[in-house]
Amino acid sequence: MADALGKVGWLDITTDDASGLKDFYKDVVGWGVEAVSMGDYDDYVMMDSAGDAVGGICHARGGNKGVPPGWMPYFTVASMDDALKVAEAAGGTIVDGPRGAGGGTMAVLRDPAGCHFALYQS
């Protein structure tokens, strides 16, 4: 995940059928696939033609059980606590988290327009 603050540091989608959806994007977009073991199932890192990770396709299970479906951008922040306080004060809602992810902390929020996004602090 990128460390530059305020940037889209990651993009993923959560779905009931990550295995089928990863094949869809592999075939349509031309992404490579790297399986990531989640214990009794795999989630997937999707890679561009240079082999760089561009996003993830995850099952709506385990830690992602409460994450809404759809493509979700992860915006990088300096302080998760501060960003969550500001988001709530500005009319946002914390949907999931904060919790550990990718060596940092993430949380899923809904903005005042109803759109979901995530924050990530490394």
* Overall number of strands: 8
Order of helices and strands: EHEEEEHEEE
β-strand percent reads over 45%
Percent helix: 10-25%
Question: How would you characterize the overall build of this protein?
Answer:
- The protein is of the alpha+beta class.
- It has two helices and eight strands, in the order βαββββαβββ.
- It has helices at 18-29, 80-89, and strands at residues 8-15, 32-37, 42-47, 53-59, 70-76, 93-101, 104-110, 116-121.
- An eight-stranded mixed β-sheet has the order 2-3-4-1-5-8-7-6.
- The longest helix has 12 residues, at 18-29.
- The model has no long low-confidence stretch (mean pLDDT 92).
Keywords:
2 helices, 122 residues, 8 strands, alpha+beta, 18% helix, eight-stranded mixed sheet
Chart the SSEs and their pairings:
Layout: E1 8-15, H1 18-29, E2 32-37, E3 42-47, E4 53-59, E5 70-76, H2 80-89, E6 93-101, E7 104-110, E8 116-121
What's this entry about, in short?
This protein is an alpha+beta fold.
